[in-house]
TrEMBL record:
Organism: Effusibacillus consociatus
Entry-linked Pfam families: Shikimate_DH (PF01488)
The protein's name: Shikimate dehydrogenase
Taxonomic lineage of the native organism: Bacteria, Bacillati, Bacillota, Bacilli, Bacillales
Domain named Quinate/shikimate 5-dehydrogenase/glutamyl-tRNA reductase: residues: 148-254
SUPFAM superfamilies reported in the protein's UniProt record: NAD(P)-binding Rossmann-fold domains (SSF51735)
InterPro entries: NAD(P)-bd_dom_sf, Shikm_DH/Glu-tRNA_Rdtase
Length: 368
């Protein structure tokens, strides 16, 4: 049978306490120290992932470092932990390995990890891009936003996912701001977008200021901490939060009933997907990075499909075609772990119009 492995990790020490209740009263500092030296764990065996064309099984393997530890510990320490987890997946029988969350971000985004394993590696970022673009476009329709007359801000735009999202969405929006920490990298990306689409691009290293004029926001910062708060967002805005951990503060859902925040990169997969480790997602729904790994196994494409920080447009198109072939599709919208119903979105849209000046009256969307 065709097989895959996928690496996961806890967002913080509270995730460990949820998995192992006996550790709930342990001091966080002690838990972090134990996790730094703990071996990788196989946390689930996935079965019954099937399409009309093939069936695969796989394994979730956890490396016991939190997002914060991956950013703060010495890079060799972090890479060694990830490589050990990858070898654990190899021993389980995986023929390809997907890197989840921060395991795909650290260092050179998977290149070094792939060199130390006998099986190919993918970050899953190509399909994450495809689903993020689908999500923001569908959400714009539901909120009666005309992209051609709207301002888009992409946060984390110099990263692998953010840069290709900005490039692919640039021709379809009225104006664009790209935001990240490194101004020189932003200027380089702005030049690429200008040459590809002819569109002038604003750049910003002040994320919170950048989004205040934006009807559409895609955020994938790679930060371990929240970066967007209720006071930052424009009335009626749509925010597609692709980052894990989330970039958007949960307080936005509580204090801004006029803003639609959706989780990017969620995919409904075919078959009778069996797993006891669902990441808080509904049955049959996975993150797009996981789905990319599954798709490559279903296609028997045992290759390093997405590695490093440069994603090609053709890669995004290829993985999207594979998804359509095997029946993978964008899952319904979720916001802060809750499913959004059509009625809930209509309510957000209705509330948002009361915040908008009459001269900014929204118009029905046209084809992109």
């Amino acid at each position: 049978m065709d097989t895959f492995g996928f690496l996961v990790h806890p967002e913080d020490v509270t995730d460990v306490a949820k998995k192992f209740p006996s550790l709930q009263n342990w001091p966080p500092a002690l838990l972090e120290r134990i996790m730094r030296f703990a071996p990788p764990l196989q946390v689930d065996h996935l079965r019954a992932i099937r399409s009309e064309h093939n069936e695969v099984e796989g394994w979730f393997v956890a490396t016991t470092l939190t997002a914060k530890q991956m950013l703060e510990l010495p890079l060799p320490t972090v890479l060694n932990k990830i490589i050990r987890a990858g070898k654990r997946a190899e021993r389980a029988g995986a023929k390809i390995l997907g890197l989840g969350a921060f395991t795909s971000v650290v260092g050179d985004a998977g290149i070094t990890i792939a060199k130390h394993l006998r099986i190919p590696v993918t970050t899953g970022n190509s399909y994450t891009v495809a689903t993020a673009i689908q999500a923001i476009r569908q959400a714009a329709v539901l909120m009666d936003i005309e992209p051609k007359e709207s301002h888009l801000t992409v946060i984390g735009a110099t990263g692998a996912i953010g840069s290709i999202c900005a490039r692919l969405l640039a021709p379809h929006v009225g104006s664009l701001t790209i935001a990240a920490r490194d101004e020189s990298k932003l200027e380089h990306l702005a030049g690429i977008i200008m040459s590809e689409s002819g569109k002038m691009v604003d750049i910003s290293t002040d994320v919170r200021h950048a989004v205040r004029k934006s009807e559409l926001v895609v955020t994938v910062s790679g930060s371990a901490d929240t970066i967007l708060y209720p006071e930052d967002l424009k009335a009626g805005a749509v925010v597609c939060d692709v980052a894990r951990p989330r970039d958007v503060a949960k307080a936005v859902a509580e204090k801004r009933p006029d803003v639609l925040v959706i989780e990017g990169g969620l995919v409904e997969i075919p078959g009778e997907y069996q797993s006891g480790f669902r990441f808080g997602l509904p049955k049959g729904v996975v993150y797009a990075c996981m789905a990319e790994t599954m798709l490559l196994a279903l296609e028997k494409r045992y290759e390093c499909f997405t590695l490093g920080r440069n994603i090609r447009v053709e890669q995004v198109r290829q993985i999207d075609e594979m998804a359509r072939k095997h029946g993978f599709k964008l899952a319904g919208f979720r916001s802060f772990d809750k499913q959004l119903t059509p009625d809930m979105i209509r309510t957000i849209r209705k509330v948002s119009t009361s915040f908008l000046p009459k001269k900014e009256e929204v118009r029905p969307i046209t084809n992109l």
